[in-house]
Specification:
The chain has 79 residues and is mostly helical. The protein contains 2 helices and no strands. The chain has one domain.
Length: 79
């Protein structure tokens, strides 16, 4: 068998391991982002002395009459 085939198969296996590691890390990052976002939300609720009942009413009202999201502006990197 051509030795180049074995070399390419080994490289592919190595790449697949790296991909699996990166996917696992991305899942960890997503979990951390969600936890931090939740903490921010809880902090805003507590800072404004909003009760769970008040928060439920705010969410219901927002569903009935959604507030348009502010336009996202993309930061341009000048190189």
């Amino acid at each position: 068998m051509n030795p180049k085939i074995n070399k390419l198969k080994a490289e592919k296996a190595k790449n697949l391991r790296k991909i699996a590691e990166m996917n696992a890390r991305n899942e960890e990052i997503d979990t951390q982002v969600t936890e931090l976002e939740n903490l921010d939300i809880i902090g805003m609720v507590r800072d404004n002395a909003i009760t769970p009942e008040m928060l439920a009413e705010i969410i219901k009202a927002a569903k009935l009459s959604p507030i348009p999201a502010p336009a996202q502006t993309e930061v341009q990197n000048e190189e």
